[in-house]
Write a structure and sequence with these properties.
Length: 456
């Protein structure tokens, strides 16, 4: 059974969840070499070196999220529209960003509701350079906000509270993530640029409360059909229940802090200012429709790795098959040689009779041209003379067996020729008759029309 590993790369440390065990690893710097070394140590200490499903979580403060409505249900058309939306609405060149989206569904009238996530490509470059040296390629790059949904679904004991829409506030060390959940999907998300390290005095707390209140109102306006009654607190927000309820008094939200056994075990080590909610949430579940960033470099390397494995298997199979075929070939070689000698003797005897048969077949082919009434030239000429009216004069015929009949002649007027062609087409023998050309010429003191008709 494969072990699921969730890794979130930050500026000063790594958040890692292996199985149900969560941990934080300090980093001396954000160089790929330092990150690779830290990951190797984590896998070695936890005796995990193979059969791993590794997922990378991208922090919400590194992602731009937009809720988009597009007048289409076709996935290909939606992707084309989102490409145009990026050019107009995102303050970066399209080549500088990597984007993904989740389709929240069709409103039943005209629009599809989407959540679009955009991140700069240089963020993913560090991820690729960190994992390639340890020969591990992540299955996908996920957005931390959706991990909070899975975490709340895992931590909330009363599942009836999750049937309606609700908010999630996850407080981390240097930022907070505010999420609106509607119909069990990510309705929208907003970043509050203040974390636990910024809430040391009264003025910072008041500023945080003001930004929280604004964020709640903004998300509610983005999804007006969502009627939220509760806000769940996760991460380092255990002591903020009263403050959150006070900030959300206008919306009359009831605040509730959620935790799990794994998170409590982590907090017991003394690291109370870091949120592991997202990595623990994704360790519990990674949904098929979660936003997943497609990183071209990772896709190419994964495909190359898969191709190499397939080639190795194919090579081994080919060597085995070749050895078997060589053995079978050697056994049957002698049998084939003796059988070949016997066949050559029989062929020599049959060649004498074959020459006589060839001459008979040639004679039959010639005779068939005259004995088969449907392919005989006499049959065609007889029917042609029967169908030819008095105002048509046929001057010559050209007939080739199985290729067709053509004949030339002349008439007084072009309509006479067209009537003749129609009469030919109405007969069984001359269906498909075509007039190749008509040309007027003068004969003595009158004018006639030459023609050529072809029947295939």
């Amino acid at each position: 059974m494969r072990t699921r590993v969730i890794v979130e790369l930050l500026d000063r440390y790594l958040k890692v969840s292996i199985g149900r065990k969560a941990m934080v690893v300090n980093l001396p710097n954000v160089d790929p070499a330092s990150i690779s070394s830290a990951l190797s140590s984590v896998f070695k200490d936890n005796k995990q070196d193979k059969n791993l499903d590794v997922f990378v979580v991208l922090s919400r403060n590194k992602i731009t999220v937009r809720r988009v409505e597009l007048p289409s249900q076709d996935p290909k058309e939606i992707e084309q529209m989102l490409g145009l939306y990026l050019i107009r609405q995102i303050p970066y060149h399209k080549e500088e960003v990597c984007w993904a989206y989740q389709n929240l569904g069709f409103d039943g009238v005209s629009n599809s509701h989407l959540v679009l996530a955009v991140a700069l490509k240089n963020v993913f470059k560090n991820i690729v350079n960190s994992f390639v040296p340890i020969n591990i390629l992540p299955e996908a790059v996920l957005m931390s906000s959706q991990g909070l949904l899975h975490y709340v679904n895992e931590a909330c004991k009363d599942k009836s509270l999750l049937n309606s829409s609700y908010f999630i506030l996850d407080v981390d060390e240097n930022y907070s993530d505010l999420v609106l959940v509607h119909h069990h999907k990510l309705g929208s998300s907003a970043v509050i640029p203040m974390g636990i390290e910024n809430l040391n005095n009264l003025s910072d707390s008041e500023r945080f409360s003001a930004e929280l209140a604004q964020g709640l109102i903004a998300l509610g306006n983005e999804v007006p059909e969502a009627k939220c009654e509760r806000i769940f607190l996760t991460g380092a927000s255990a002591t903020f229940v009263t403050m959150v309820e006070k900030a959300a008094k206008d919306l009359r939200l009831k605040a509730q802090y959620l935790s799990t056994k794994e998170y409590d075990t982590f907090v017991a080590t003394g690291s109370k200012g870091i949120s592991l909610s997202s990595v623990l949430g994704f360790n519990a579940q990674v949904a098929k429709d979660d936003i997943k960033f497609v990183v071209p470099e990772l896709q190419i390397k994964k495909e190359m790795k898969t191709k190499v494995q397939q080639l190795m298997i194919l090579g081994a199979a080919m060597v085995f098959i070749l050895a078997m075929l060589c053995g079978i070939g050697l056994v049957r070689l002698v049998q084939r040689q003796s059988y070949s000698a016997t066949l050559k003797a029989k062929v020599a005897d049959l060649e004498k009779n074959a020459k006589e048969l060839d001459s008979v077949v040639d004679s039959l082919k010639i005779a068939r041209q005259y004995t088969d009434p449907k392919s005989s030239v006499l049959f065609f000429i007889t029917d042609l003379n029967r169908l030819c009216p008095d105002n048509i004069t046929i001057t010559n015929y050209r007939w080739e067996w199985k290729k067709g009949l053509s004949f030339r002649g002349y008439a007084q007027q072009i309509p006479d020729i067209l009537s003749f062609v129609n009469a030919l087409n109405s007969s069984e023998a001359f269906k498909g008759a075509q007039n190749r050309y008509t040309r007027r010429r003068r004969v003595k003191d009158k004018e006639v029309v030459d023609f050529e008709i072809f029947v295939k």
